[in-house]
Amino acid sequence: MKPVVMSTTKGLRILIRNFEMRDLKRVMEIDEAASLEGDETLYIELFREWPEGFIVAEVDGMVIGFEVLVLTPEGEGRIFSIAVDSRFRGKGVGRALLKTAFALLRKYKIGFVRLEVRVSNWVAQQLYRSMGFVEIGFVPFYYKDGEAAILMRKVL
Ligand SMILES: CC(C)(COP(=O)(O)OP(=O)(O)OC[C@H]1O[C@@H](n2cnc3c(N)ncnc32)[C@H](O)[C@@H]1OP(=O)(O)O)[C@@H](O)C(=O)NCCC(=O)NCCS
Questions:
Q1: What class is the 4-113 domain?
Q2: Which of 20, 80, 119, 128 is deepest in the core (most CB within 10 A)?
Q3: Is 152 in the pocket of ligand 1 (CB under 6 A)?
């Protein structure tokens, strides 16, 4: 994708662009601070597999959020990972990243997008519901610490 400057629904001006390897350290920082347990090697692998699916949001030249998209063997999109620096949450960055993902998947004629979210993660669930995701399943012990995941899916 071409880098795009946009205003979020909360009026924050952000630059949305594809991930580059020089962003890795910052992405891992945000990932770790958000307790996502993302794996650096896996992120690099996913980036190499589909560079367009790895998206970052920037404010004043600093990466403040990221999203990793993958394509499933069933031909659906999957939000593998999404996080925003805690100092920039609640300003519409997550929503902007998701909208970018939907547009990208539609470009490839993908009909559905799915994701997993912790049962306890109400904030993310609220966001996903408000963007048209519906609950389609429940996976006990999905996360390393034993927490269950809710599966959600959206028609694109
Ligand atoms: C989930 C996350 C990516 C959302 O990003 P964000 O930039 O804060 O989200 P937005 O500002 O776009 O908020 C969109 C919606 O999320 C919900 N939301 C955001 N912050 C919230 C808060 N503090 N309390 C309750 N709901 C909140 C609201 O429904 C909000 O809707 P609104 O725009 O109508 O107010 C971010 O909270 C985050 O990084 N969390 C830690 C990592 C994580 O949980 N990732 C998801 C794993 S599945």
A1: alpha beta
A2: 128
A3: no
